[in-house]
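Fill-in record for V-type proton ATPase subunit c''2.
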Amino acid sequence: SIPQYLQITGPDSFSSVREREKQIVSSRPLQRERERERMSGIAYASSWGAALVRISPYTFSAIGIAISIGVSVLGAAWGIYITGSSLIGAAIEAPRITSKNLISVIFCEAVAIYGVIVAIILQTKLESVPSSKMYDPESLRAGYAIFASGIIVGFANLVCGLCVGIIGSSCALSDAQNSTLFVKILVIEIFGSALGLFGVIVGIIMSAQATWPTK
């Protein structure tokens, strides 16, 4: 005997079964597409985090050291360019300002020295870690700390170099016109130079968090 759930009764039984089959078959691609979109959304949301975690902490450390010295030198060079061009132009009409306003160039050069000092400090923070502990939370924390320290120092010195360069340029032009303004503008330049020291202090404190796991 045929089971009851397999028995087909009524004149429209075959057509209704066919319609249900068509609906089921037509709905399957839509279900697959929705499932694919859902999974791709989850994968996309987690792909960036997974990619960052898989990057070696030594890579972050090397990038931080490079940014520390590279961006600091960029800020120093930019500041010297701004100050030097104005100083040379103004010295044509007032040669007496040349020796005094070289202090602005020295302030700009100090910005690059800040970056070199911090880069050396960060370099001493690097330690050899076994491959089994390469991606431990402590290793990742050390790499991120060195990376963040380099970014802080580099961009703080970049802004400091631009600030000192622009003030030094104004100081040279003002001194050429009125020599009594030199000392007053020099005080402003000293405060602008202190911006780089703030970045150096915070960067050194941040680098103290770079502790690698013991063997």
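KEY FINDING: The two ends are 75 Å apart (CA to CA).
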